[in-house]
Specification:
about 130 residues, alpha/beta
């Protein structure tokens, strides 16, 4: 089976062989934005591919199938755990989930963060 045949989502699949997909909550707070920044770092480093949580949460068939066929990592900003719960609701097995506020980073709506907080988030993952 070719890479394109393995690709069931509607996005570009030139790197579809990457077995790890990361789903940041990207919520409306500093910790939500830290989750997104950490996911981007993982993607840039080639450790995981950032993927569309909204598409999976909306139950878009191809996106759900892609997520179900991968090792899924949820990065949530807070204990509401929207990313993890959205994946579970779509019957995606979450291999690893972290909550940034559990790392001692306080949630606020100032939308500012620093590189140390992103590093701390990345260190909490086992990749």
């Amino acid at each position: 089976m070719t890479t394109e045949e393995n690709c069931v989502c509607s996005c570009s699949c030139d790197d579809a062989a990457t077995p790890v997909l990361v789903f940041p909550c990207a919520g409306g707070s500093n910790v939500g934005q830290i989750s997104n920044a950490a996911a981007i770092e993982l993607d840039r480093a080639g450790k995981a591919r950032i993927y569309c949580l909204a598409g999976v949460a909306a139950h878009i068939d191809g996106m759900v199938a892609s997520a179900q066929g991968a090792r899924a990592i949820a990065i949530d900003g807070c204990n509401v755990a929207c990313a993890r719960k959205a994946l579970e609701h779509a019957n995606v097995k979450v291999e690893q989930a972290i909550v940034i506020t559990d790392l001692g980073i306080a949630k606020n709506h100032e939308f500012s963060w620093n590189q140390n907080e992103i590093k701390q988030t990345l260190a909490a993952l086992s990749l």
